[in-house]
Amino acid sequence: MKKINNFKNPIIVVSIICFITALFYFPFIFRSHEKKDVKLGGSSINNACEITIQVSGSDIPIDLEEYVIGVVAAEMPVSFHIEALKAQAIAARTYVLKNTNYGQIPIEPTVAKQVFYDEDTRKENWDKSYEEFEKKVQEAVKSTEGEVIYYNGELITAMFHSMSNGMTESSKNYSGNDIPYLQSVASTDFQYADNYETVTTFSIEEWNKLLKVNWTIDDVKKIRLQRNNTGRVEIVSNDKNKWTGREIRTLLNLRSTDFQIDVIDGEIVVKTEGYGHGVGMSQYGADAMADNGSSAHEIIEYYYKNTSIEKLNCKN
């Protein structure tokens, strides 16, 4: 009987090589197709455990938690209580996930969204205090890693501002949309802020240029301010013109819409209280609450009514 050497048959050799190769690669193929889900308020987001954030103006996506470090460093004074910094981290993480649909679209690093400082900027700003400040901010972010805020199973729009005027603003007053978790609450942060009140003086020429009007001082004296239930100005008017409080804030570059307009010695004096739009969490209020013993979760639950804090949970 003639002995057949299988290894001299090209078809058999190729088959054996393919079989061995398949045995080696199959585990990696299956592993690469494993599906990771994130459970949040009853919803499931694929691959959310590997979320990266694309900051407008940068070509390199940033890990979610690294992004939150950059926002906390930029948006809140590092001298604030650690619990206030933690609350800021939770709010910032929630805001970016909601605003970018879990990292699907870029976000501007500006006050219109969230200010973000990369590591180089933090080093430059903090100089010799960099290691100390970086450690504190990283601690705040790490201790709240993955924590987000939701209302009725949905991520909230976690608006925040620097300093209230004693009351936070409701979303209805601000935009006309009545959002259940963005209601007005008392906030005593003004007691803790050195720069709670600011005074800006304008000549009549400066005033007319900024508002694009041709008034006299007597026209300024006839101004009427209509305020809402949180003390902020809704309407500014006289016999000639009419604006919303938000429009005047923008035109005059004021810190908030809680302002008073007076004429003193021929000049226009505008006194402003608070800083920011006033909606959601007050940062100075958060610091005041933390100083008085409140935890980050208590701060969040106070400023965002009837919300819950949950962790992003990865599941294979």
From TrEMBL:
InterPro entries: Bact_Sporulation_Assoc, SpoIID/LytB, SpoIID/LytB_N, Spore_II_D_firmicutes. GO terms for biological process: sporulation resulting in formation of a cellular spore. NCBIfam families: SpoIID_LytB, spore_II_D. GO terms for cellular component: outer membrane-bounded periplasmic space. The keyword Transmembrane applies. It comes from Lysinibacillus halotolerans. Pfam families: SpoIID. This is Stage II sporulation protein D. The chain crosses the membrane at residues 12-30. It comes from the Bacteria. Residues 62-151 form the Sporulation stage II protein D amidase enhancer LytB N-terminal domain. Keywords: Membrane, Transmembrane, Transmembrane helix.
